[in-house]
Amino acid sequence: MNKIIEYLLPPQRSTVASEVDSLFMFINVAGFILFAGIMLTILIFVIKYRRKSEDDVTPVITHNSLLEITWTIIPIILILIVFAWGFRGFMTLSTPPPNAYEIQVKAASWLWEFEYPNGGTTLNEVFVPVDQPVKFIMRSDDVLHSLFIPDFRVKMDILPNRYTSIWFEATETGQSILYCSEYCGSGHSAMLATVHVLSKQEFEEWLETGLEVDEDMPLADLGRQTYTAAGCNACHTLDGTDRIGPSFLNLFGSERTLTDGRTVTADEDYIRRSIIDPNAEITAGYPANMPSYAGRLSDRQIDGLIAFIKELHD
Known about the structure:
The protein has 314 residues and is of the alpha+beta class. It has three domains: 2-49 and 62-94, Orthogonal Bundle (Helix Hairpins); 101-209, Immunoglobulin-like; 219-310, Cytochrome c-like domain (Cytochrome Bc1 Complex, Chain D, domain 2), CATH 1.10.760. It contains seven helices and twelve strands. The protein has helices at 2-8, 17-48, 65-94, 200-209, 219-229, 268-276, 299-310, and strands spanning 101-108, 111-115, 121-123, 125-129, 134-140, 145-149, 154-158, 164-168, 174-180, 192-198, 255-257, 263-265. The chain has a five-stranded mixed β-sheet, with no helix packed on it. Helix 2 packs antiparallel against helix 3 (65-94). The longest helix is centred in the first third of the chain and has 32 residues, at 17-48. It starts with a helix and ends with a helix. The mean pLDDT is 86.
């Protein structure tokens, strides 16, 4: 059974994953057995009770109390088993341990922002310690989102104007993908983040140094890194094709026609304004749904993005 689970499902990387998978497999196996039993019974009846001649007359059929009780009791028992099993798992997932490490999660179209107790933040990647409960306290900046980490078997909707939460305890170091599993607009499929599970010592060291921007990194390299880490790739391509927003290829120095009819040059000031206050100057033909990165990116990260965009030419 474990081999089947490993083949069909993502790897089990949290303390609750095994129980979730066991219930999932029980439901599927029980359903298959019932389906096969019903189909086999139908096949036997079709063959045994088929009309053999024109003189055959359907007999008067009453009820069979034993049969009716049986096909009522068995599904009730199965439903009660699934309910009790599922409720136990629900209570486990709804009750984070008191020593859980809390991380604030903010979802916005189309990025993830994570804030740690020491005030540091990361975009589209989150770092957590192994073998320690971690609690996400989540809210949305705009529409309905849903945080889903398949490897950990946890999923929870994120709503505007209220908090929701989930918790998990990773059992091995490595990386896992975090998805938005609730359709939230045209950039939904690119709203991804990476969960980095570190040893406790590595996590403590990362908290001390990992949240700082590498001041020695060349600006263009920092911009390329920020392009992915900040989720710019969800809306802006590098190959000239349009997505939700204009491509970064050949963007710098081009003339941009705005929705109000004005024409502006895409220079350094324009790109910075587009990052800090994206709805102030909207390029014609594109929706006004880019979130502001004010406070999310440092000045050097913005400078890096500008330098990166300036280098993108055919």
